[in-house]
Amino acid sequence: MKKSIGIFDSGVGGLTVFKAVKDALPDQNIIYFGDTARVPYGSKSENTIVNYSLQNAAFLLQQNIKLLIVACNTSSAFALDKLREQFEIPIIGVIEPGAKTALSVTKNNRIGVIGTEGTIKSLAYQKELRKQNPDCKVFAKPTPLLVPLVEENWIDHSVTKQVIAEYLDELLRLDIDTLIMGCTHYPVLKDMIKSVVGDSIELVDSAEAVANVVNEKYSGKNSILKGEYNFFVSDNPEKFKILGERIIQSELENVHKVFFTESWIQK
């Protein structure tokens, strides 16, 4: 059986990564897991995030995957090293590719980052950006309400725009020319974020950055063959399907609910 690319996220937001990878590599099989029962991750403790991430990865490893993409920025910030210690397959997070893309487009080396409380407090983007370019200035802002707003499908709601404008007011006063959307839920709000920040600020979508990395690894795509896609969630598959179809802009089939078990964790 042809092995799949595995992707996990705290909820539905990682479908932005799924769509980007699917579009770049249409011949690849993809298995997606959204931890909809425990979203959001950003407000939880580091130990809890690591534990959830190990469970998610262990489940996907049982599905015969050849590559694991950690779509959740908070998991990438706190659990990537632990995942690589635990599992032998290649594992890609979203932070390094996102930082690389931001540095490639900024002109004044003043970069803003928005993300969950956990991602921002981890300093993961700040450290990675300065590791790749010590001269860059990084301005980070936690924007914790955006994940619940996306999960509630308030993508076009006026309240969502007001929240975005309130969050970004401080960053827009700091002369940034690039803004990293440091959560896979945020590209769902890309048009609304763009309407707030204007055309002078470049938005960096970590989903597209990850897709570029995966495309390099599995280049030579065959557009004649079409990959198979399966989706697993830990709660509310009906809601996941409705919002998911809006994100990927096509019908979302093969959505299954799974139940947590300790056997997922490899001791």
Descriptive key words:
267 residues, alpha/beta, four-stranded parallel sheet, globular
Short description:
This protein is an alpha/beta fold and 267 residues long. Helix content is 45%, strand content 18%. α4 (95-105) packs across α10.
Structural write-up:
By secondary structure, this protein is an alpha/beta fold. Helices cover 45% and strands 18% of the residues. The protein has helices spanning 15-24, 46-61, 73-86, 95-105, 117-122, 124-132, 146-151, 158-172, 190-197, 206-217, 237-248, and strands at 4-9, 30-34, 65-70, 91-92, 110-115, 137-142, 178-181, 202-205, 229-233, 255-257. Strand 3 (65-70), helix 3 (73-86) and strand 4 (91-92) form a beta-alpha-beta unit. 46% of the residues are buried. The mean pLDDT is 93.
| Main sheet strand line-up | 4-3-1-2-9-10
Label the structural class. alpha/beta
Tell me, what's the shape?
Answer: globular
User: What does the largest sheet look like?
Assistant: 6 strands, parallel
Estimate the mean pLDDT confidence. 93
Helix coverage percent: 40-55%
Amount of beta strand: 15-25%
Instruction: Give the H and E element order.
Output: EHEHEHEHEHHEHHEHEHEHE
Number of helices: 11
The total count of strands amounts to 10
Radius of gyration over alpha carbons?
17 Å
The low-confidence runs, each spanning 5 or more residues with pLDDT under 50, are none
User: Termini, distance in Å?
Assistant: 27 Å
